[in-house]
Every structure is written in structure tokens, then in C-alpha cells.
Design goal:
Elements: E1 2-4, E2 11-15, H1 20-31, E3 36-40, H2 46-57, E4 61-65, E5 68-72, E6 85-88, H3 93-103, E7 107-113, H4 124-132, E8 136-139, E9 148-153, E10 158-163, H5 168-177, E11 185-190, H6 196-208, E12 213-216, E13 220-223, E14 233-235, H7 240-253, E15 256-260, H8 274-281, E16 284-287, E17 291-295, E18 303-305, H9 313-320, E19 326-330, H10 342-352, E20 356-360, E21 363-367, E22 376-377, H11 383-393, E23 399-401, H12 414-424
Parallel strand pairs: 2-15, 3-14, 6-7, 10-11, 18-19, 22-23
Antiparallel strand pairs: 1-23, 3-5, 4-5, 7-9, 8-9, 11-13, 12-13, 15-17, 16-17, 19-21, 20-21
Length: 425
């Protein structure tokens, strides 16, 4: 259990560890290259370790060398398995989704599974898309959810349609495997694609390692067969999602916090737009080439479509509790299929504090300015809830968080950096 000490205002500087999303993608792309690659400033957390271990199982040689990852890739020629091979992904939805298409490039039977919560998270649209591309794969038990059995013998390729309203990771998964299909892979998105910046991130990493993708916005993608990933070096920039909790801490306490290893002028991480939201709510933002400073101010609620940055919803909901008026968060129905039903979990825990929160089908309405009180909080085994509750505890006495270790999923050093910042203030 972690007790949060109220503190206002909060001041200091934090160096943010490498991006989880970029680390996943860099490991996959370099693991598919022929040559050796070096990944610097990578993030080692529960989720990325699942991706690293799975790529090892598929044939990539991966080892740590002075805080870098050295990866000798497979060139797309994955290990042939003589008997059914089980790959366990815990609760890392990113690992499971991105690697499902990669597994299809192998030879043999693979059973992809995970934690109890993972077995409730939909994967059907990606499985069905792979079926259309010539892959023999199916969900073993609950319809459209893991475990997934893949009888791998490569991907034929061709054209496939995919709904865009559940997860952009389905698209990224196909894109990564596309160069090794027998013929060009064409992906047509039906409806609006959620979390678009994560597809941009995928395409950037693919390009960094030598693979180009033709596209028409977010509605059509074509990967030419026969391309090869090239080995090389990549330095992973700081994780913007992780930085958001420290920005929110400045916002709710009226302090000033600087996050280093963040590149607001160049990053393709979509969550950088969270700074725009804080600015609209009343904070002052200083953006420099390699760092960001957030200075808190008088906060007011906003109305915002969060479809492109769903991971920021709990962070925004924390700030909204201390903002005048109401904050309306829209277009994030897909948050119900994260580590928790994140909309329901936020509404439940914020109400436990005395907050006025309305849960709607695709979002939340948070009314700020209420009288709040501390309690023993349940993060629902969701790292993003735990870190957002830390923000709330800076203003509300007696906030205690059970299972605080769940932050290791994405940010193992969170509490060390958090406590260090609080001590400095």
C-alpha cells in the first residue's frame, strides 16, 4: 500500500525514461532485420519484457550491453517449432497484438495466451483479418478473445478490410509483418481509426529500419512485399505518457515541474497533445527542444475528444477534479478493453473520494470543485489509474493506493522518481 502525502506547490525536474510504445516497436523491427541493431535508452518494464522474450523465442538474439539492447535479427526467418509452442504475454495487450501477425510468419503451431484480464480483451478483428490474408488462426475459447492458436506457415498477403474503432494496434501488427507476405498487403480501414498517432509511430519505426509504407491518410495502407528491415541504431526518446503524471502534478498543485528527455517540437507520440489540454485548462507551458516545463494556474474544465490519446484519460480526469466547472471526455469507448474497464474504474474510484463523476458509454463527465476526502483506493490492477491517483493524493489527504506495484507494467521507476520529486519540494 502506498500513502500519498499532500504537497502544494510541487517544484522540480524529472528525467523521463524511454518510451514504452517506441521500445516495443524498435524491438520488433530490429528483431526482423538481418543485421545487428542497438537500441539505446530502451524502457525495461513488464510489458516490454514480454515483447523481448517473445522475439527471443521466435529466433532473435537479444541481450543487454551497458544499458542498451543489442539485437541480431531473424531477417524474417523465424524459428520452426516441432511441437506446439505457448507464448505467454501477461497483460501486455501491445505485445500480444503487435506480435500476433509476426508469429504467423513462423512455421509450426503457436498458442498465444496471457493473464485472466488478457483473456477478456478483444482480438477478433485482427484474427479475422489474418484469416483473410491466408493465415490459419482462431480464438480457442471465448469468442473474439484470447487464447489464439496459430498454425503458422506464412502470410499470403492481399487486400483486407478492418474496422478502426477498437485498436490501432491491429493495424500496426499487420504493417510490421507486411514486408514478409507472399504478395503486397493492402489494409483498408472502415470507419474512423482510433489512436492514430500510434500508427504514425509504427510507420516511423519501420522507416527507421528500412521499410516504407504507402498510405492514404488513415484509410488505406500498402506494404510492398519483399522489402527488408535493416539493422541500425535507435535512441528511444522519453515516454510522453509517463511524463504526463508529473505535468498533472504541477497543474493541480500550482507548482512548476520540468520533464527532461521529452522532445515536444519533434515527437510523434500523440500524448504530447496533453500539454495543449493543460494549456486550455489554465496552465502555462514552456516547450523546448529537449524538455517541457508545466506551471500550474487557475484551472477550468474543458470538453475534449480523447480518441487519439486514450491513455491520458485518467490523468485528465485527475486534473479535472480540481478544475472549475465540468470536464467532458468523449470518444474513448475502447478504454473499456484496457487493463481494466478504465472508464468504469475511474468513475468508481473518483466517486469513492467524493467526486462527482458521470460515466457515459464512450467517456466521462467530471465535475470539479467538490469536497473530496481520502480513502483506500483500488487501481483495478491498472498502472495508469495508480499513477493518476498519485496526482489526486497531492491535493487530498489520506489517499492510500493498494497494489501500487502495478505501475511496473509501464513505469517501474515511477515511485522512486515521484518520491524524489516530492522530497525536493
Amino acid at each position: 500500500m502506498k500513502e500519498i502525502e499532500p504537497l502544494s506547490p510541487l517544484h522540480g525536474t524529472v528525467k523521463i525514461p524511454g518510451s514504452k510504445s517506441i521500445t516495443h516497436r524498435a524491438v520488433i523491427a530490429s528483431g526482423l532485420a538481418k543485421e545487428e541493431s542497438s537500441i539505446k535508452n530502451y524502457l525495461e518494464c513488464e510489458d516490454t519484457l514480454h515483447t523481448i522474450e517473445a522475439m527471443r523465442e521466435l529466433g532473435a538474439e537479444i541481450f543487454r550491453a551497458q544499458d542498451n539492447l543489442r539485437i541480431t535479427g531473424t531477417g524474417g526467418k523465424l524459428n520452426r517449432v516441432p511441437a506446439r509452442k505457448e507464448l505467454f504475454f501477461g497483460n501486455s495487450g501491445t505485445s500480444f497484438r503487435l506480435l500476433l501477425s509476426i508469429v504467423a510468419l513462423g512455421r509450426g503451431e503457436f498458442l498465444l495466451t496471457g493473464s485472466e484480464r488478457m483473456l477478456e480483451r478483444p482480438i477478433g478483428p485482427l484474427v479475422h483479418a489474418l484469416n483473410h490474408l491466408g493465415v490459419e488462426a482462431w480464438c480457442r475459447e471465448k469468442s473474439d478473445c484470447p487464447p489464439v492458436l496459430v498454425k503458422a506457415c506464412g502470410i499470403d498477403g492481399g487486400r483486407v478490410q478492418m474496422a478502426g474503432n477498437q485498436s490501432s494496434q491491429f493495424v500496426s501488427s499487420l504493417l510490421f509483418a507486411g514486408p514478409f507476405a507472399e504478395k503486397d498487403m493492402e489494409i483498408e480501414i472502415v470507419g474512423d481509426l482510433v489512436s492514430k498517432p500510434y500508427v504514425d509511430m509504427t510507420l516511423d519505426v519501420m522507416a527507421h529500419f528500412g521499410v516504407r509504407v504507402e498510405r492514404d491518410g488513415y484509410r488505406y495502407f500498402r506494404v510492398r512485399a519483399g522489402q527488408e528491415y535493416k539493422g541500425g541504431e535507435m535512441t528511444v526518446e522519453g515516454d510522453v505518457s509517463s511524463a504526463s503524471y508529473f505535468w498533472a502534478a504541477a497543474a493541480v498543485t500550482g507548482g512548476g515541474v520540468t520533464t527532461e528527455n521529452i522532445y515536444p517540437l519533434d515527437t510523434r507520440q500523440g500524448d504530447i497533445r496533453f500539454l495543449d489540454l493543460l494549456e486550455a485548462m489554465g496552465c502555462r507551458i514552456e516547450r523546448r527542444s529537449d524538455h517541457v516545463t508545466v506551471q500550474g494556474g487557475t484551472l477550468t474544465g474543458i470538453d475534449v475528444d480523447m480518441g487519439a490519446m486514450p491513455d491520458m484519460v485518467p490523468t485528465l480526469a485527475a486534473v479535472a477534479l480540481f478544475s472549475a466547472g465540468k470536464t467532458t471526455i468523449r470518444n474513448v469507448h475502447h478504454l473499456r478493453f484496457k487493463e481494466s474497464d478504465r472508464l468504469r474504474a475511474v468513475a468508481t474510484e473518483w466517486k469513492r473520494l467524493g467526486g462527482r463523476v458521470e460515466e457515459v458509454r464512450d467517456g466521462l463527465i467530471v465535475h470539479g470543485g467538490g469536497r473530496l476526502h481520502g480513502d483506500l483506493m483500488d487501481p483495478h490492477n491498472d498502472h495508469r489509474l495508480a499513477m493518476s491517483l498519485a496526482v489526486v493524493g497531492l491535493r487530498v489527504p489520506d489517499v492510500k493506493i493498494r497494489n501500487e506495484g502495478c505501475v511496473a507494467k509501464s513505469f517501474p521507476r515511477f515511485w522512486d522518481l515521484w518520491d524524489g520529486l516530492c522530497r525536493l519540494s
